[in-house]
Amino acid sequence: MRVLWFAEWQPLAVQRRLSRTRDAGPEGWVERLAEELRRDPGVTLAVATPTACPFAPFEDDGVLYLGVPTAAPAARVARIAHAWRHHLTPPHVLAAGAQLARDFGPDIIHVHGTEGAFGLLAGRVGGTPVVISLQGILREYERQYFAGRSAAEVARLAAGTEFLKGRGALHRYLLLRRQAAREACIMRGARWFIGRTDWDRGVLAAANPRATYFHCDEIMRVPFYAARWEPGGPGGSRICTTSSALMGKGTECLLEALALLQGRGVPGLRLRVAGVHPGSELDGIYRRAAARLGVADRVDWLGRLDAGGIVAELLAADAFAYPSYVDNSPNSLAEAMLVGVPTVASRVGGIPTLLKDGDEGLLFTPGDAGGLAAALGRLLDDRAAAARLGAAARVTATARHDPRTVAAHTLAIYEEIVARSRGARPAARGAA
Q: What is the DSSP string of 215-267?
């Protein structure tokens, strides 16, 4: 089977080819899937990615990499003007992707995510079926983008230098609105989709009742499978969390919960925050919030960490918190479950599909700092019960994210879609 992927990010192999340094932080889970699929001798896999630096097609570790040429303004003033216009992917990039698909001649095209433009290839590549993975749902991110933000904070962003340069959180929001509108067209226009949670299944059904939905889980990064959390770490009450450059992650809510726990006199209380770029707009917002709440001396800002760094933080933590206002199937939560650290997460989006409340961790209402503090307090007060929750979560996550199972399920989905597209009798597995 010839399989062609379209992905908006640049895989590690392409970054090496272009002599670029990879930023520390989550690697695409899709790269782990590629590692598994290339082991199947019946699969020829190619990955196409947009690039402003053209490169010739090359093969690396059994995977063919193809570049879809893009162009960005070279001059500084032109770049700022371009950013202010919030341009989406130009039509010529989509046309180049379609031509690349015709040249490669795949049996199936898999577009990873609805956030980019390549989902519009459905119906533009002849009879080749196109299946699209549901990852983040931009419409919901747009609705929750400013959750937890005061009007004064938003005004401060508008007065900042990042905004004037066409960068920063406000410009990301304006671009997000246009991307969400494009995503709606993708979800209405395509036939085949892969998702992972009850939530993304429901979102798709509302947007396109005629679509066919397949459930398939993800493969996580290698270090998280081997690590195993054990109670009785360095002592104290150490909470870790992962945030990002995106708004809506609920970090301010966690800081409020930290203040409430501090008021209770919880001993040895510390919060370790990974994923926020030092010196960024969000870094400033969070640090000001910590100071305002009187917990600045209890927070460690770790910046971006690689997989090994995150594993070390999870193993040393007494609890993991994921307070996001919106999410589908966050990898950071899945990784924490794989390690087995006791976890609290917001009851939002697809998270209740991943984590069973009371059996594998604790869920709270997003934005409810008191509820988050109470849940964290339960884990810190009853360490034995917390350990049991973490152990149960690890069992579930290990089965759900088993690499061979996920890869086999993915191939079964491909085979069924190809068969049904050709009018053949489909396999009896995978569709829902």
A: E------THHHH----S--SSSEEEEEE--SSS-S-HHHHHHHHHHHHHTT-T
Same fold, 2-219+402-421 and 223-400: yes
Beta strands across the sheet bearing 108-112: 58-60, 63-69, 44-51, 2-6, 108-112, 130-133, 192-195, 212-215
Q: Of 189, 186, 132, which Cα lies nearest the Cα of 5? A: 132
pLDDT tens figures, 236-253: 899 999 988 788 899 999
What are the distances in angstroms from CA 185 to CA 18, 48, 288, 322, 374?
Answer: 33, 22, 39, 31, 42
Burial of 199 (0-12, 13-18, 19+ CB in 10 A): buried
Global model pTM greater than 0.90: yes
Terminal alpha carbon distance of the chain: 23
């990955």: which residue's tokens? 47
Centroid of chain to Cα 220: 11
What CATH topology corresponds to 223-400? Rossmann fold (3.40.50)
Indicate the Cα dihedral angle 92, 195, 202, 394, nearest 10°.
Answer: -140
Highest averaged pLDDT of the listed ranges 132-146, 232-246, 336-350:
336-350
Which helix (H) or strand (E) segment holds residue 364: the answer is: strand 362-364
Q: Write down the domain spans for the chain.
A: 2-219+402-421, 223-400
CATH of domain 2-219+402-421: 3.40.50.2000
Spatial distance between the Cα atoms of 185 and 203, rounded to a whole number of angstroms: 14
Name the DSSP letter for residue 82.
H
pLDDT at 3: 98
In whole angstroms, give the CA distance from residue 139 to residue 20: 32
Please check whether residue 314 is in contact with residue 220, taking contact to mean a CB–CB distance below 8 angstroms. no
274: left (phi over 0), alpha (psi -120 to 50) or beta: beta
